[in-house]
Automatic annotation (TrEMBL):
<dbReference type="InterPro" id="IPR047594">
    <property type="entry name" value="MoaC_bact/euk"/>
</dbReference>
<comment type="pathway">
    <text>Cofactor biosynthesis; molybdopterin biosynthesis.</text>
</comment>
<feature type="active site">
    <location>
        <position position="127"/>
    </location>
</feature>
<comment type="similarity">
    <text>Belongs to the MoaC family.</text>
</comment>
<comment type="function">
    <text>Catalyzes the conversion of (8S)-3',8-cyclo-7,8-dihydroguanosine 5'-triphosphate to cyclic pyranopterin monophosphate (cPMP).</text>
</comment>
<feature type="binding site">
    <location>
        <begin position="112"/>
        <end position="113"/>
    </location>
    <ligand>
        <name>substrate</name>
    </ligand>
</feature>
<comment type="subunit">
    <text>Homohexamer; trimer of dimers.</text>
</comment>
<dbReference type="InterPro" id="IPR002820">
    <property type="entry name" value="Mopterin_CF_biosynth-C_dom"/>
</dbReference>
<dbReference type="Pfam" id="PF01967">
    <property type="entry name" value="MoaC"/>
</dbReference>
<dbReference type="InterPro" id="IPR023045">
    <property type="entry name" value="MoaC"/>
</dbReference>
<keyword id="KW-0501">Molybdenum cofactor biosynthesis</keyword>
<protein>
    <recommendedName>
        <fullName>Cyclic pyranopterin monophosphate synthase</fullName>
        <ecNumber>4.6.1.17</ecNumber>
    </recommendedName>
</protein>
<dbReference type="GO" id="GO:0006777">
    <property type="term" value="P:Mo-molybdopterin cofactor biosynthetic process"/>
</dbReference>
<dbReference type="InterPro" id="IPR050105">
    <property type="entry name" value="MoCo_biosynth_MoaA/MoaC"/>
</dbReference>
<keyword id="KW-0456">Lyase</keyword>
<feature type="binding site">
    <location>
        <begin position="74"/>
        <end position="76"/>
    </location>
    <ligand>
        <name>substrate</name>
    </ligand>
</feature>
<dbReference type="InterPro" id="IPR036522">
    <property type="entry name" value="MoaC_sf"/>
</dbReference>
Length: 158
């Protein structure tokens, strides 16, 4: 089995994608952050002292997607042509579900960008609310769909 991120000397390298075709690519990732019911209610009511939690988390997720190659060592810098973050407040389970969709036209996929966007959005929610709820828990971050490139369509059953 070839390890694509290892060079002939056994050290890390960035995979050469220069021979790959430029294709339209999209990746969708999801994740959740659990919290106290009071915290979720305050987010919903807009009474968190630091401001509008979901607006800030949305910007944090988009910024993270755009900067993924600065965070993940072997990721290629990618021109992000689209990034959207959405949130679903789940009052029954006291959590916020996060979904990130990232698009590009390029030679490599945007799975890492979508996963990074979800992670950063969840971390931003944590940062915005940690003064009132240090027990928040970030979970279930996963890729659920990707399209484009040589490997084509991938969809996880969730």
């Amino acid at each position: 089995m070839d390890l694509t991120h290892i060079n002939e000397e056994g050290r890390a390298k960035m995979v050469d994608v220069s021979d790959k075709d430029m294709t339209k690519r999209e990746a969708v990732a999801i994740g959740s952050i659990y919290m106290k019911k009071e915290t979720l209610n305050r987010i919903y009511e807009g009474t968190i002292k630091k401001g509008d939690v979901l607006s800030v988390a949305q910007v944090g997720g988009i910024m993270a997607a755009k900067n993924t190659s600065h965070l993940i060592p072997m990721c290629h810098p990618i021109i992000t042509t689209g990034c959207d973050i959405s949130f679903k407040l789940d009052f029954e389970n006291s959590k916020i579900d996060i979904k990130a969709t990232v698009k590009t036209i390029g030679q490599t996929g945007v799975e890492m960008e979508a996963l990074t966007a979800v992670s950063a959005a969840a971390l931003t929610i944590y940062d915005m609310c940690k003064a009132i709820d240090r027990d928040m828990m970030i979970t279930d971050i996963m890729l659920i769909r990707k399209s484009g490139g040589k490997s084509g369509l991938y969809e996880r059953e969730v």
